[in-house]
Amino acid sequence: MAYVSAKNGFDDPKSSYRHTVDENGVHHVSGVYYLNNVAFRFSLNEQKKGYRMRGRISVISPSSGRVLKKIGSARRKLTEKWNDDHPGEKMEGKALERLNIFSELNVNSLDDEAIKKRIAEKAAKLFAKNAAVINADLKEMGAAAQHTASQAAMIYKNEFLKTCCPNVTDRTRQQKFQWAR
């Protein structure tokens, strides 16, 4: 079943934010940000030059849990450019990363609130820019993802009961169910 929450951003209970400092005093920030029930994984590291913190934020596929890939014309455009730049060479390994849906993330502060604000801005932009791909991925999850917990319990009750209580026969279950009415 798809994850559904009434809360967004870092208020969502599944969102996480971890700010650590390693033994060399270098700051690292990582976690997951939820927006409209879609996960965005982020990671930033402190830099010596340029922006104070630099990293990446990626859209995570609700159906597979992996980084969501571009589809349609955006994907075709990237593969055509690859084929022009690398004739006869197949797109493999690291080259496939260019098909991932992500954005560079730069913050000029070590303040947690400033970092969270920038993460929220980038996630919103990524969501808006890739809404069609995200919706297509949600549709791929199928009808099972659309059921509420009670609907799923009713649909799969027989399979559940057979795994939970394998020694009880269907006839016994029917008799007990009629007795409970």
What does this structure look like?
By secondary structure, the protein is of the alpha+beta class. It has two domains: 130 residues, no CATH class; 35 residues, no CATH class. The protein is 38% helix and 20% strand. The chain is built from six helices and five strands; from the N terminus they run E-E-E-E-H-E-H-H-H-H-H. It has a five-stranded antiparallel sheet with strand order 1-2-3-4-5, with helices on one face. Strand 2 and strand 3 form a beta hairpin. It is extended. The mean pLDDT is 79.
H/E order of the elements?
A: EEEEHEHHHHH
The proportion of strand residues reads 15-25%
Number of strands: 5
Distance between the termini: 30 Å
Number of helices: 6
Radius of gyration: 23 Å
Q: How many distinct domains?
A: 2
